[in-house]
Amino acid sequence: MPELPEVETVKRTLNQLIVGKTIEQVDVRLRRIIQRPEEPDEFALLLQGQTFHGVDRRGKFLLLRTDDFTLVSHLRMEGRYGVYDKNDPMELHTHVVFHFTDGSELRYKDVRQFGTMHLFPKGTELNEQPLKKLGLEPLDETFTLDAFIRKLEGRTTKIKPLLLNQEYIVGIGNIYVDESLFAAGIHPEREAGSLSRKELAALYEAIIQTLNDAVAAGGSSIKSYVNGQGEIGMFQHQLQMYGRKGEPCQHCGHEIEKTVVAGRGTHFCPKCQPLKRKNARKAGA
Ligand SMILES: [Zn+2]
């Protein structure tokens, strides 16, 4: 499933490919992708004659900006965008086609059909679902250490599910949570409220570093992820935990273990990420 770095890569690619293009017509071939307005015909009609001005991201959502509207698109498991010539053969699982006046087309493909598109009048999109209740944006300047600590403090939940909860912090999924917790030396089942300020600071830095590294590498290609230009992301070669069960930890050499936390497969190093904090009490005894 694409996570923040992959969606960020798609965003950057789309900004290179569709800005300035004007929509002549929209073809909705699978109506369930269109969540708002209710009628796909209306969706198509509203977008007719609109020009794309830019693409932003909020969490794992893409925000495609036109003259009068914001198209909020979520790729879910397998959604992909590509820009094609109108004469290119239509590939299987192409569900929405934006025909441009210059003869090119933006096509949305989705084998699993879980992706969604919501169309809002420009400027109203943040007040409504699905963007309304989203949490901190980890690559934004508003993501400060204090804001991060305020979100987690006093929580009795395990740290991993909390980091996966989009109402606390957006865009980090299973892969990057495991990587960030390893980088910070924190066991995924630690109670969030039990983390010291020092540990929270390490985790905060680890999240930013992990996501930035992944964005720089173009996102992971686990589960056949491909960005908007057909390039395959390279970050999977840098993953230190995810998918490495049984391999030696690159930091200490201990065998990497896999367990299930809150229903999700979870990789960790039991030596680098002890469940009990190496506590201060011992030193005084
Ligand atoms: Zn280790």
Verbal overview:
The chain is an alpha+beta fold and 285 residues long. The chain is 25% helix and 22% strand. It is built from seven helices and eleven strands. It has helices at residues 4-17, 40-47, 145-152, 159-164, 174-184, 197-216, 281-284, and strands at residues 23-28, 34-36, 52-58, 61-66, 69-74, 80-85, 94-100, 104-109, 116-121, 257-261, 264-268. A five-stranded mixed beta sheet has the order 2-9-5-4-3, with helices on one face. Strands 1-7-8-6 form a four-stranded antiparallel beta sheet. A two-stranded antiparallel ribbon has the order 10-11. It is elongated. The model is unreliable at 280-285 (pLDDT under 50). Zinc ion is lined by residues 249, 251-252, 254, 269, 271-272.
